[in-house]
Design a protein that fits this description.
Blueprint (H helix, E strand, L loop, with lengths): L1 E9 L2 E8 L7 E11 L3 H7 L29 E8 L11 E4 L6 E5 L3 E3 L6 H4 L2 H14 L6 E5 L3 H10 L6 E5 L3 H9 L4 E3 L10 E6 L6 H8 E9 L15 H4 L3 E4 L15 H15 L5 E6 L3 H10 L6 E5 L2
Parallel strand pairs: 8-9, 8-11, 9-10, 11-12, 12-13, 14-15
Antiparallel strand pairs: 1-2, 3-4, 3-6, 3-15, 4-5, 5-7
Helix pairs in contact: 3-4, 3-8
Length: 329
Amino acid sequence: MRRDALVFDAPRSVGVRREMLAEPRAGEVAVRVALSAVSAGTELLVYRGQLRPGEPLDDSLPALAGAVHYPLRYGYAAVGRVEAVGPGAARSGRGQRVFCFHPHASRLTARGEELLPIPEDVPDEDAVFFANMETAVTLALDGTPCIGEAVAVFGQGIVGLLTTALLSRFPLARLTAVDPSPFRRQAALREGATAACDPAGLEEEGPTDLLYELSGDPRAINSAIELAGFGSRIVVGSWYGMKSAPLDLGGKFHRSRLRLIASRVSSLPPELGPRWTRARRTGVAWDMLRAVRPSRLITHRYPIGRAADAYALLDRQPDEALQVILEYP
């Protein structure tokens, strides 16, 4: 089998390689990919060379088990159909639609247990958001929003918009989206935010109980601290790579007993204990994809051969795009 695979050859250098893919071995299946989603947050860190050399890409996903060394392959949101099944991989039959956490490529092989069957009532264009929806579900679990609370979400990229969409389903007093892009602020209002503002024009409307930092800019944590009320929670879901910024922890943060909470989709909040498993979260993520139907957030589609144009757009004109999709013939 032949495939086209995306490779980050060096910072800001993206290529597509035509290569042979071995037939699936025992326990493996081969998937013909229809489309994959580009993560404008994490993948731009890879594209811009903003990851620490030697750092694991993602130690929770077999397909991303390597460390940061160029050339490298990345991506974690592929949707396609099983086209070949190796011995002992009966879980995934030929023709079945599946989601896989795998770098961008027109074909892939994976162990059967690494694939997620896509429910029949979830279209491919919604299913490709599964990874980011799972992240949004985890952010909600980490933040534990309560009835009547005021909530603010810094950053309205795809993860921020999906998180806003989920939070809008809670009986909150206020849900404020914060982003410098008017385009994204309008999208946040459509997803259920009660207000949307530029970080530079952020005005306190009363204590904010729960704040999410999803902008990818560590400086936003200071803005969240200023907006927070006494004892508020600040959930940090961004992965900054090598980016850093001074944090003002000597004033309001200290006096107001604020809590900084790290959120990461590769694990569940420890306090949820045995009641919440990955399987349970997976089911909730599919339910939320049915409820939100995020395919309307797709703004650009590129064939795999034009992948370099897709990353250049996100790098140079980020205000023009929400979800960018790569398509495969």
